[in-house]
Amino acid sequence: MMKKPWSVTTTVRNPDRLRDFLAVLQKLENSEWNHENQKKYQILLIQNRLYGYGKQQFYNGLTDEQIKLIDDSSKEIPFEQAAEIFDEKNYEDPPMRGRQSLNPLKKFGFAAIKNGKIFITDLGKLFLQGDFKDNLGEIFLKSFLKWQLPNPDSRRDYPENTYYDVKPFVATLHLINKVNQKEIACGNEPKGISKQEFSLFAPTLVHYEDIDCYAEKIVDLRRKGTTKKGVVPESYKKQFAEKFLETHNPEETDKFLNNLKDYGDNAIRYFRLIPYVYIRGGGFYVDLEPRRKIEIESLLDHNNAQAKDFESKEEYFAYMSDVSRPQLPWETLEKRIEIIKELVKEIQQYETDLQIENIEISDYLKMRNNELGDYITELRSYRQTLLEEKNRRKSQSVEQIESYIEDLKNIHHSEDDRPILLEKLATLGLHALDDALEIKPNYPVGDDNEPTFTAPANVPDIECFYKSFNAICEVTMLTGRNQWYYEGQPVMRHLRDFEDDHKDKPSYCVFIAPKLHRDTINTFWNAVKYEYEGQQQKIIPLSISNFVFILKALLHLKTEQKILRHENISYLYDQILASTDSFSDSNEWLRSIRATISSWRKDLFS
Q1: Is there a single domain that holds both residue 302 and residue 344?
Q2: Which of 216, 213, 218, 212 is nearest to 198 (CA)?
Q3: DSSP-derived secondary structure letter, 103
Q4: Is the pLDDT at 399 greater than 90, yes or no?
Q5: Which of 138, 198, 151, 74 is closest to 496 using CA atoms?
Q6: Residues 518, 586: contact at Cβ < 8 Å?
Q7: Across the strands, what pairs with 463?
Q8: 34: how many CB neighbours lie within 10 A of its CB?
Q9: Quick check: 276 and 295 in contact, CB under 8 A?
Q10: How many other CB atoms are there within 10 angstroms of residue 340's CB atom?
């Protein structure tokens, strides 16, 4: 049997979507996991537009009427029609589709099959809670610290007593740490491992005893002169693939290397949710989070990434889903006091830099262990507030605004996760623009206050609060018709919910995308001109280039020592909305927005 790398998941690449899969599965909790309910689960995913939605390949074989129903996200899909769509696909093994959709939920310990019935675990219930965003890192940490190969549920793909003996996440932390140690020993500055090094070496690290050997391979590869930004030569990749697979078949090695790129990118996406991993070096390197040094060192001292022995699937799944296990080595009185001391030093430095009054530090030496844990959470939350204020102040400089403009203009060439980067840049751009009371991004962040993932699907990407109005900002990197699939109705729904929650002031929605698809703009046109759920809405559709055009106006004013106020921004928004009276269709309106911004700029500069 050919050796295989590990993969976090290829079924559900988006952690937020994983939660939606779990919410649908909850409808079947305590039901028998038989063929009938396996098919039913997949039908429910189709009904909720979590499977097949917007994917051309899925539409093959469906009728025009079925495709139209799936595409129209304003309409609910009745279960009977979702079942007809599922049957129309004529799958060779229909129940297998439901089993595949369940697999990542089982792998992470969010769900299990217990006595033949579907069971949502305590960890899964924690994931389904309304405030899951704030706990996302801790939820996945509980899972990834325990996920291992082999395990009783993976014996077909990763047999016991063969090549495999590893906890992938823990082994990856060890690998990065070993590489850093070896670089320090050579007199070099540690920088973690590049994304290309990660994709090649992390998923193929399938035995804990190979950690040091793999770290040496990376350092040796660097000594031989890899190119800038940790790029691994293609010739090396090919040789590595041939040795790992024990084959010289070019089709197999090419497929293997293509898969490794996907596996690596997806692993980084998931591992980054955990506050022990952060991205540095302009987005090119994966490193250990220095602000979690105490926790990481404790973990690596106590866990060598070796897999545990389990007698049965039931025992393994019980372990995976138990929120009380494993016992974390830093959750002792002594370690928590160490963590607090470091946090206090860091907070006081931020307060000094920001020239704000120091908060009162509680007498933590008299606290009980569980109280220390709560206090650590409180201090980290305050540190995040300080970092957000630091970002806000930093965003006001001409140099920073210039960097936001360049990053937005070059976003298609960025090595970063572009949807996350766009949310970050939109947040920073909105911080820079004017005198907002608060710009509140809804993406989860790491200890460095960098976004670890995009905002959850059930909330606006960014909420903005001003003295005379409020707004939400929604962003997307989608440009095709799937932009309408995923953004049309949700954007209008988010705005309506936001309007209902903030009735004291007018509410706008700024929608930013590389370009606006005709179906998206037509949907917004109807909401602006006529109504959505009975009332008109204030939606401002902006291409990235038009958002940059607005930031350039700010830049011009900054150089002249002038201030752009929020009243100036709301005036621009109103002008864009009022221009709809001059046109008969949405595309004319869209084309006119640049001219409206130009006219607004002239008024500002006059």
Answers
A1: no
A2: 218
A3: H
A4: yes
A5: 74
A6: yes
A7: 440, 472
A8: 12
A9: yes
A10: 19
For residue 155, is it within any domain? no
Final residue belonging to a domain, choices 391, 409, 426: 391
Residues 384 and 478 in one domain: no
Cβ(128)–Cβ(121) below 8 Å: no
Residue 320 lies in a domain: no
Residue 161 lies in a domain: no
**Longest Cα pair distance anywhere in the chain, in angstroms?**
78
Distance from first CA to last CA of the chain, Å, rounded?
A: 74
Among residues 391, 408, 436, the one where a domain terminates is 391
Tokens of 516: 């606006």
Q: Band of the pLDDT at 86, cuts 50, 70, 90? A: very high
Q: Tens digit of pLDDT for each residue in 294-333?
A: 999 999 999 999 999 998 888 998 899 888 888 899 999 9
If one counts every other C-beta atom within 10 angstroms of the C-beta of residue 248, the result is 10
* Distances from the Cα of 30 to the Cα of 24, 27, 255, 315, 370, angstroms: 13, 9, 40, 19, 34
Whether 373 and 432 map to the same domain: the answer is: no
Structural domain includes residue 145: no
Report whether 17 contacts 100 (CB < 8 A). no
pLDDT tens for 428-445 read: 999 999 889 999 999 988
Asked if the peptide bond before residue 326 counts as cis, ω within 30 degrees of 0, the response is yes
Sort residue 73 into left (φ over 0), alpha (ψ -120 to 50) or beta: alpha
Q: Same domain for 65 and 95?
A: yes
| Whole-Å CA distances, 7 to 98, 196, 262, 469 | 20, 16, 9, 46
Strands 539-543 and 507-513: parallel
pLDDT, tens digit, for every residue of 13-37?
777 788 899 999 999 999 999 999 9
- Note whether 212 and 338 are same-domain residues: no
Could you tell me if 440 and 579 lie in one domain?
A: yes
How many angstroms separate the CA atoms of 528 and 541, rounded?
Answer: 11
Joined together, the tokens standing for residue 133 give 């965003």
> What angle separates helix 132-144 from helix 250-271, to the nearest 10 degrees?
130
| Structural domain count, the chain | 4
* Mean pLDDT calculated for residue range 99-122: 92
Question: pTM, whole model, 2 decimals?
Answer: 0.87
The CA-atom distances, in angstroms, between 29 and each of 120, 123, 125, 319 are 7, 15, 12, 20
For residue 280, the SS3 value is strand
Same domain for 373 and 429: no
Residues pairing with 532 in the sheet: 535
Positive or negative, the Cα torsion across 226, 230, 231, 234? Answer: positive
User: Same structural domain for residues 386 and 405?
Assistant: no
409-414: list long-range contacts, CB under 8 Å, 24+ apart: 409/544, 409/545, 409/548, 411/477, 411/514, 411/544, 412/514, 414/283
Residue 510 has pLDDT above 70, yes or no: yes
Per-residue pLDDT, 228? 65
Q: Assess whether pLDDT exceeds 90 at residue 162.
A: no
Residue 54 confidence (pLDDT) = 66
Structural domain containing residue 288: 168-306
Do β-strands 438-441 and 285-288 pair in parallel, antiparallel, or remain unpaired? unpaired
- Which CATH number fits the domain that encloses residue 451? 3.40.91.50
Place of tokens 């074989």: 61
d(CA 30, CA 26) in angstroms, rounded, equals: 9
What's the pLDDT score for residue 111? 94
